[in-house]
Design goal:
This protein is an alpha/beta fold. Helix content is 52%, strand content 14%. Strand 3 and strand 4 form a beta hairpin.
Length: 519
């Protein structure tokens, strides 16, 4: 039986591969689009994958039905153009509605991903079944044809996945990656519309309607125009973050990564520490050794490089090695935050989990953990196995300082302390009175080592800054603002330590999925 809608196999392969690749480009880029408003958490990844899979299923079903009802040549071109135009609208939609959903929790990720990519993914996913229909010439070959193009679609999806992760996000801002993808789809669709006109298909003879060209052109212009016109909060779109630097006063600079106020830097005075948790870091470092003694420090995460710069300014002769995942953040710090590298401050770009393995054993007096992916410490930097690496690079009397953000019921904090206690004999927690009582959230500074600084001295340093919020009767748990052994026991409860096999960090940070003991 002759196929009335036959398309060359080469063109069919190109259309299936490129549309499938574009769908995965959209899926991956959606994570970066919504991160400034919903955070880069496991819920964001889940929302992106879930919304994309749902849209793929809907689009494939509707595309197959439309191909049977109308004929594939009448829908392939319009679908491609519409999918490309809607791809360019994804970012303006998220930028428009994102601020209103900031802080709405995991639901924000689902809503924003849905607004951004659900429709273009569904439209593009309707193309492959229509293309397959053009290749079905004999019933005896339908299995072979369908299987072949299913494999080609998967190959295209893989190509889109690797191209986005390894090339697009490394070389282009999200806006330009979406623009390129949209233009590619619009170009293929326009070519298909022209082809159908030239061979006398697409609009039946005698049909005086103008066809879809004008509205599709308008949608394309709208998508491209809004993609360029709608402003973004990002100063730099890195492979991992939406980053921006906001001036504060004459010399203050605040670094924002996605939706988190990450670092404060005084470009004229590196000894000035604005955030309370950095002041607590400084208290511990000050008590570790006399000011005349240089300290060798390893920093997990660079951000604004506040503590490395403070250490260089307050303890001459000290050295800092910073493990920073994102090279764009290092460039931004050099350009906007006064970072100067040299013998006393070196930066190694790479994931802290892998780069710490290359650091010398017993090489550091201090390890500072201040790496964040969204609102949480990346899970692979929280486990017993990673803490073992920290212990390996610390000298026998060294100290591990860790910044943790958590909110009641403090399930993640409890699990991380339980993990640290498996490696280090002493673990203290520095925070406000209400935080240590489990009544408030925020930044908690955890101090771990074989010889932690004097808790009373740490409490005195905090009191000098008037950090205490109210008197606390539980004196046996530790001085004001410091949880020592008994206070830490209460914080930990029966929490389960984290390991590479079990580290649900994002879930522990989400109270409504918390169960006793972090299990």
């Amino acid at each position: 039986m002759r196929n009335l809608w036959h398309m060359s196999r080469t063109l069919a392969v190109v259309l299936v591969v490129t549309t499938s690749a574009s769908v995965l480009v959209l899926e991956i880029l959606s994570m970066r689009l919504v991160a400034p408003y919903a955070g880069l958490t496991l819920e964001t990844y889940t929302a992106s994958v879930g919304v994309a899979l749902g849209a793929i299923a809907v689009g494939a079903a509707l595309g197959g039905r439309a191909a049977d009802a109308m004929g594939p040549d009448r829908i392939i071109g319009p679908l491609l153009v519409a999918g490309g135009a809607l791809t360019m609208l994804a970012r303006p939609l998220v930028l428009t509605f994102g601020p209103a959903l900031r802080g709405a929790g995991p639901a924000a990720a689902v809503i924003l991903v849905g607004l951004g990519i659900a429709v273009p993914v569904a439209v593009l996913s309707a193309v492959p079944p229509a293309v397959v229909k053009t290749q079905l010439a004999r019933l005896t070959e339908t299995g072979t044809v369908v299987g072949r193009f299913s494999a080609l679609g998967t190959a295209g999806a893989l190509a889109g996945t690797f191209a986005t992760g390894y090339v697009l996000l490394a070389t282009l801002p999200v806006s330009q990656a979406l623009l390129a993808t949209g233009i590619l789809m619009v170009g293929l669709g326009a070519g298909q519309l022209v082809r159908d006109r030239l061979v006398g298909r697409g609009v039946p003879a005698g049909d005086t309607r103008r066809g879809p060209g004008v509205p599709l052109l308008g949608l394309t212009v709208l998508g491209a125009g809004l993609l360029v016109a709608v402003p973004s909060e990002c100063e730099v779109e890195t492979a991992y973050y939406c980053a921006r630097v906001v001036p504060e006063g004459e010399t203050g600079r605040v670094l924002y990564l996605d939706d988190l106020q990450h670092s404060y830097v005084d470009v004229a005075d590196p000894t000035h520490l604005e955030f309370v948790y950095t002041e607590r870091f400084a208290d511990v470092i000050t008590l570790m050794a006399p000011r005349s003694r240089p300290i060798q420090a390893l920093h997990l995460g660079g951000g604004g490089f506040t503590i490395p710069r403070w250490l260089a300014a307050t303890r001459p002769g000290s050295t800092s090695t910073v493990l920073e995942l994102d090279p764009s953040i290092v460039r931004l710090a050099r350009e906007r935050l006064g970072l100067r590298t040299g013998p006393s401050l070196r930066v190694r770009v790479g994931d802290a989990r892998t780069t710490i393995a290359t650091q010398p054993a017993d090489g550091y007096d201090l390890v500072v953990g201040d790496a964040f992916g969204g609102r949480s410490v990346p899970w692979h930097l929280t486990t017993r196995e990673f803490v073992g690496q920290v212990d390996r690079v610390l000298r026998p009397d060294g100290v591990y300082l860790l910044n943790i953000i958590d909110n009641p019921p403090l399930a993640f904090l409890a699990a991380e302390i339980a993990t640290l206690r498996q490696v280090f004999p002493q673990v203290f927690v520095l925070a406000t009175t209400d935080q240590l009582a489990g009544e408030d959230g925020g930044n908690f500074v955890v101090v771990a080592g074989s010889r932690a600084p004097d808790p009373a001295a740490l409490a005195s340093a905090a009191a000098a800054r008037d950090e205490a919020e109210r008197p606390r009767p539980e004196a046996p748990e530790g001085p004001e603002g410091v949880a020592t052994e008994r206070g830490v026991d209460r914080l930990v409860g029966d929490a389960r330590p984290l390991s590479d096999d079990w580290a649900p960090v994002d879930q522990l940070l989400t109270p409504y999925v918390y169960s006793d003991g972090g299990g």
